[in-house]
């Protein structure tokens, strides 16, 4: 399954007015009957129900059903944004100003009409809370000329804006309700906004579902929104159940859950002949990556080029694919192969033991280096522990001693986001399907800084990332994203590892359970 962003869409964006058409929520075929309960198994990385603070995979699945966005993507598509709250938009020739016309029939779950003021509040709140997803608003400002018009202005040309605003972090909240419960979009929102506790128990969105119960460790339950402005939800209740891949395999066979989202390719043969289950698979846009902290205050060893070269050339990428399973593929750069701007298969890094051992010899005698990763989180049936153990063994072959330091995901995320890990094994799911989303790995950007990487020693990479962000011509964008990723690979702070296969396993009577490269699975389409 290869997904690329079509040049015709990008050309239309920068040419002038673009009127969106597509299957909006109001146009989606209604279910013949509203069904009772749908249960999904998912390995949780759930942290919050507040869209402005949510930045995890499970949160995106949950948020898509509760909070609407200006634009979205059709079921299974990741190429062309379609209308949601906005029915159309226009963009100026320089791709710096986008004007959105809002629908006039969208209401929040309490029946309050959604207006442009709610969009401005929601976007400014994301920016000023300064959470993990605040970078989505970097360089952008939002205004509302009238109740039904929103204008997004970018400091620099930005053709990625239509894709960016599909991100669930930019879900639109009922501004009056959130303000009444401690929310603010003021510049000091990072210290004064206290609405998260309220939003973890109560919906303030306009989506087809609302929160019944929210729990980050066991299960989260959403129920049909009786005031939904589009076609009614297909289910009275959807339960997201926290479960390991092993438990999901047992539960989907017994009927305890209706859909399993994390089964690995090695688990699928056990159910391929089951007539009651349907398997839908494809290559995932998720990338697993390893990083070596570039901050000498964290490690005088991992911050050296010799250490990065030892890691880059010491890894057995083919062996890691064995752990990732059938259907996985080595990722050549930070942009996954399913998106426009990805490197070619011929660009992958190849193991070179001679180069790795020469780099280790240059390092001399060093103490063991600690590798941190989440111990209780898996994706597509892949355990971080198994990958970490293989990395440890690979690097021992070339003379590097790696100490494994697993911890629960909540703890591991804190150290990762705090930039304190000597080495880290993590993954990246797309926030939106455009290569611009992967500029976060550059020096001085959000993921780069988690790896202790500032731009002082690699100014050329900073310049490349800045140029990639503002280039509008399709061919030029592709060329510069290629140059950017090859330069990233040469430095080697990040070692892109692989993309796993992705599977959605569902009961044969479950309609619309399709893998989404954007959302993982789109709960709003299931049952329709």
Tell me about this structure:
The protein is built from 16 helices and 24 strands. The protein starts with 6 loop residues before the first helix and ends in a 7-residue tail after the last strand. A 7-stranded mixed beta sheet has the order 9-10-11-2-12-22-13, with helices on both faces. The protein has a 6-stranded mixed beta sheet with strand order 15-21-14-20-16-19, with helices on both faces. Residues 1-19 have low confidence and may be disordered. It is of the alpha+beta class. A hairpin with a 3-residue loop joins strand 23 (515-516) and strand 24 (520-521). Helix 9 packs antiparallel against helix 11. The protein has helices spanning 7-15, 57-66, 116-129, 161-164, 175-180, 189-192, 196-199, 245-254, 305-314, 317-324, 353-363, 384-397, 409-417, 446-450, 459-470, 474-491, and strands at residues 17-18, 35-42, 71-72, 82-83, 86-91, 97-102, 140-146, 149-154, 209-213, 219-224, 235-242, 259-260, 277-283, 287-292, 329-330, 369-374, 378-379, 382-383, 402-407, 423-428, 494-499, 501-507, 515-516, 520-521. The radius of gyration is 23 Å and the shape is globular. 28% of the residues lie in helices and 22% in strands.
Structural class: alpha+beta
Main β-sheet description: 7 strands, mixed
Distance between the termini: 23 Å
Unreliable stretches: 1-19
Helix content: 25-40%
In percent terms, what proportion of residues is strand? Answer: 15-25%
As laid out across the biggest beta sheet, the strand order is 9-10-11-2-12-22-13
Radius of gyration: 23 Å
């Amino acid at each position: 399954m290869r997904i690329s962003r079509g040049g015709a869409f990008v050309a239309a964006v920068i040419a002038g007015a673009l009127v969106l058409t597509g299957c909006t929520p109001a146009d989606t075929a209604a279910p013949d009957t509203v069904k009772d309960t749908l249960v999904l198994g998912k390995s949780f990385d759930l942290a919050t129900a507040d869209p402005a603070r949510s930045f995890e995979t499970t949160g995106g699945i949950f948020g898509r059903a509760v909070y609407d966005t200006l634009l979205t993507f059709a079921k299974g598509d990741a190429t062309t944004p379609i209308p949601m709250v906005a029915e159309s938009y226009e963009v100026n020739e320089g791709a710096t100003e986008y004007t959105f016309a809002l629908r006039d029939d969208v209401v929040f779950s309490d029946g309050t009409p959604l207006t442009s003021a709610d969009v401005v509040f929601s976007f400014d709140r994301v920016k000023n809370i300064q959470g993990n997803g605040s970078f989505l608003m970097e360089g952008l400002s939002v205004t509302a000329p009238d109740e039904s018009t929103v204008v997004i202005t970018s400091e620099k040309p930005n053709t990625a804006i239509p894709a960016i605003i599909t991100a669930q972090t930019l879900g639109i909240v009922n501004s009056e309700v959130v303000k009444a419960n401690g929310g603010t979009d003021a510049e000091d929102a990072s210290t004064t906004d206290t609405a998260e506790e309220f939003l973890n128990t109560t919906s303030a969105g306009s989506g087809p579902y609302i929160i019944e119960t929210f729990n980050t460790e066991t299960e989260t339950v959403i129920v049909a929104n009786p005031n939904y402005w589009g076609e009614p939800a297909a289910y009275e209740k959807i339960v997201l159940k926290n479960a390991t891949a092993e438990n999901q395999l047992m539960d989907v066979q017994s009927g305890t859950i209706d859909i399993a989202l994390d089964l690995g390719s090695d688990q699928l043969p056990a159910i391929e002949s089951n007539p009651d289950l349907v398997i839908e698979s494809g290559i995932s846009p998720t990338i697993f990556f390893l990083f070596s902290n570039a901050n000498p205050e964290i490690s005088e060893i991992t911050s050296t080029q010799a250490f990065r070269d030892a890691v880059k050339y010491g890894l057995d990428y083919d062996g890691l694919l064995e752990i990732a399973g059938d259907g996985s593929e080595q990722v050549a750069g930070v942009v996954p192969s399913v998106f426009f701007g990805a490197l070619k298969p011929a660009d992958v890094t190849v193991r070179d033991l001679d180069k790795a051992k020469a780099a280790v010899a240059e390092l001399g005698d060093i103490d063991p280096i600690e590798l941190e990763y989440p111990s209780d989180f898996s994706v597509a049936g892949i355990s971080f522990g198994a990958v970490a153990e293989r990395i440890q063994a690979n690097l021992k072959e070339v003379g590097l001693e790696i100490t494994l330091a697993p911890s629960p995901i909540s703890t591991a995320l804190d150290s990762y986001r705090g930039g304190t890990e000597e080495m880290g094994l993590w993954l990246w799911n797309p926030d939106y399907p455009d290569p611009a989303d992967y500029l976060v790995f550059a020096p001085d950007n959000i993921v780069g800084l988690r790896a202790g990487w500032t731009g002082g020693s690699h100014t050329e990479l900073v310049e490349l990332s800045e140029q990639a962000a503002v280039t509008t011509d399709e061919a030029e964008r592709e060329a510069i994203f290629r140059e950017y990723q090859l330069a990233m690979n040469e430095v080697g702070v990040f070692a892109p590892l692989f993309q796993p296969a992705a599977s959605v396993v569902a009961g044969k009577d479950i309609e619309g359970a399709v893998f989404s490269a954007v959302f993982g699975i789109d709960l709003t389409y299931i049952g329709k």
